[in-house]
Amino acid sequence: MKRVLFSFIIILLVLQFVSAVQVDLVKPSYERYEILTAKFSGNFIDNIKEENVFFYRTHVRTPMQFTLQKINGDFYITAMIEDKPSGNYSISIENVRYAKGIEVSDDPIAKTFEILDSQAEFTLDKSVVTTNKSFSIILQNLNEESLTIYLNKDTTEATTTTTQEREISITEALFGMDENETINETTTTEETITYDKEIVLKSGEIKTIQIEPLAVSEPTWAKLKLSSNRTEYEIQIYVFAGDENEIIPDDKPIILDNSNKSEDIVKNVSNLTEAESITKTCSQLQGNFCNETQICVDDKTKLAKDGKCCLSECAIKQESTSNLKVYGWAILFIIVFFLVWFFKTKYSKTGTRSVSLLGFLRKK
Question: DSSP string covering 237-306, please?
């Protein structure tokens, strides 16, 4: 009986220190314009809402665009790492109650990450998807040159060892040597790269690809990997049950649909429609904000999510010739009016006869 009681007390003490919420980040550091994905798992009493999500740079709150999803009791937050200064950041869930052992806590749940002083090679519009039908992913090349992106790229290495007997010298023949020393071994490593699809983007180009998930008989998680030379994303896809009986194993990725069913749609930044532009920020459109003293060259503006965005360059406003003429005539009129008033006032005070301005100027 004492052992049971002692074990129960130990369990209670351990539960006091158990972290009730687990926070998983895909990786600890991110380049600018990468997508951050955070998963919060735990026994939440309150649902996490957008007003409970905060981002900090060291200890200073900083704004960041994000989306919040709840899937199977877990909460997924995806955020675009925009043009933020490099340094240490954190994501924090605040004012949300959750079970912590045998207690209820509303302490902040925070996870730190780092923003690097470099830019991702490409970005995309989502990293967590829930669906039971085809969906699209929007990619954009952030490089100044063309970029190749691979779908589900996998690299394997094969090692080959070849042996060859070498010639024996006279000294070795006279004094003898180990038989193993007469063999030369050469090891070569060959790297094999496989992928499902290759996507080529020009500099700044935006491309939409269609993804066709396989039908499943029960809800299943799948993964999709998009990678270039330096940037890699792992898209997590929660597939609802479909009509067909094919089940996707946990390690089997969603595959791209056949090319005869879906095509890549190529679009340039300058050709975005107004409806598409308003879902993106000006920095995502690779544009600038012009101040009150500037104009957008060639009037290449789009309505972005955070305001009117200039897709060319901002130049200083120059007054037109007609405006300068108006200002000139106005100044001349003011000068003439002042001279008339001055001389009229002067001679009226001295009691002398009135003198016209033109007559006065002739005498001068």
Answer: EEEPP-SS-----TTPPP-BPPTTT---EEE-GGG--HHHHTTS-TTTTT-B---TTEEEGGG-EEEETT
Say if strands 128-131 and 232-239 run parallel, antiparallel, or are unpaired: parallel
**What are the structure tokens assigned to 302, written together?**
């789009």
- Report angle CA 352, 355, 360 to the nearest 5 degrees: 125
Mean pLDDT of residues grouped by 10 in the chain (364 residues)? 50 48 92 94 92 94 92 92 90 94 90 94 91 86 92 77 61 53 64 83 89 78 90 89 45 37 31 43 80 78 72 74 62 79 66 47 48
Question: Which residues have a Cβ under 8 Å from the Cβ of 12 and sit 6 or more positions away?
Answer: 101, 102
pTM for the model? 0.58
Q: Which 3 state secondary structure label does DSSP give 140?
A: strand
Which pair of structure tokens corresponds to residue 347? 């001679």
